[in-house]
Amino acid sequence: MEAFKVIGGTPLQGEVVISGAKNAALPILMSALLSKTPIVFSNVPQLNDILTTVKLLTQLGAKTQWLADDELSIDASTIDLCRAPYDLVKTMRASILVLGPLLARMGHAEVSLPGGCAIGARPVDLHIQGLKAMGADIDVENGYIVAKKDGRLNGANIFMDTVSVTGTENLMMAAALAEGTTIIENAAREPEIVDLANCLISMGAKITGAGTDTLTIEGVSELNGSAYRVMPDRIETGTFLVAAAVTQGHIKCLNTDPSALEAVLSKLQEAGATINTGDDWIELIMSGPAKAVNIRTAPHPAFPTDMQAQFMTMNVLAQGTATVIETIFENRFMHAPELQRMGANISLEGNTAIVKGVESLNGAQVMATDLRASASLVIAGLVAKTPTQVDRIYHIDRGYLRIEDKLQALGANITRIQVES
Ligand SMILES: CC(=O)N[C@H]1[C@@H](OP(=O)(O)OP(=O)(O)OC[C@H]2O[C@@H](n3ccc(=O)[nH]c3=O)[C@H](O)[C@@H]2O)O[C@H](CO)[C@@H](O)[C@@H]1O
Ligand SMILES: C=C(OP(=O)(O)O)C(=O)O
Fold first, then answer.
1. What ipTM goes with this model?
2. Which of 15, 38, 45, 124 is 20 to 30 A removed from 117 (C-alpha atoms)?
3. Atom of ligand 2 nearest to the CA of 329
4. Is 199 a catalytic residue?
């Protein structure tokens, strides 16, 4: 098994090129299932989750080909299978995103129920309810969601009880090929929703309201894509900015989009960072210890849950005491006990963490439990007084492209090592 060995003490300095967004690329690549023509996607990060997606699309009968490191061609004109099997879904929950497109295109989809994961139960009831409202007949059989519809799905008025990112994406993709108009209320407003909508529109879909809480989708009978460029990864960007802030460094993130990171940038400024931005870059300068900042996660445009763990590490070493409230996932504090093993002062009560800043952390052997928790532990390692080993980094490889290469280029001492499993 692989782990990271991190030797702390060097402020991050220099420039880092941000990759395409995992959470935008996943639904966008799945949307190729709706197109009768081949599409070339660019700015696609070759992350483990993306490779799983390519495997899934290939199993369904699509032809996929990497044309360059970050350029992928998908031809789904030939899909012939409608089943996403458990062995793929269990490694990547986002496989649920084939449900809407397959049902809309083929009138039939079988997708393994994802089950829970380290950060919470994560049900998919809203995906199912929305598709039922569009006329689908859906049952759960032997752990699989089995969905059928004779003819096209029907447009429907759908109110989502809880704001769900992939739920909104699944329904938006299904509605794009439905007969009639679908209105999704209380829709997610994340930038990745806007990116998916733009991709679908480039394929001929009629969608308005992306980025607001009401989406209107007028179904069309056929979609034909040609090319689409995935947006930059706002969470990778935020992670590098926090790493630079914690190490009191000075970095510039290139190929990114500051407008997708407003809540994160404003919290970094509150912590004492100087932030400069251009159209596609963000510079951060931190010349002293961070000030503690309170965080409350909530759907976009509020502070993203995917940045909570990284900010917890910043607060662990900050001046003062911070309250961190996680409102999206019921078990997303798994990094806290690992940070405590490095000397952090954190007390947990339900969905609230009280973090009292300490002067320094000691290195330790710690275990990554999920994607962003792993990032928070790597950041802690970058400033710990003694070496840190972060185990189970297959979590981090799901969402960060060559993170050790990018951190090394900024001056960090981090290496990938083999350890006994
Ligand atoms: C691939 C991807 O884009 N992943 C992101 C997506 O996950 P994902 O789309 O899975 O997260 P959701 O937005 O659906 O989850 C938000 C909340 O809604 C609940 N819920 C969701 C669906 C449902 O049918 N029923 C239900 O109760 C969830 O348990 C959770 O409490 O959004 C999350 C919230 O911003 C991010 O942390 C993930 O990085
Ligand atoms: C939770 C995340 O991803 P996923 O929904 O793929 O588990 C994440 O990107 O932080």
1. 0.99
2. 45
3. 1
4. no
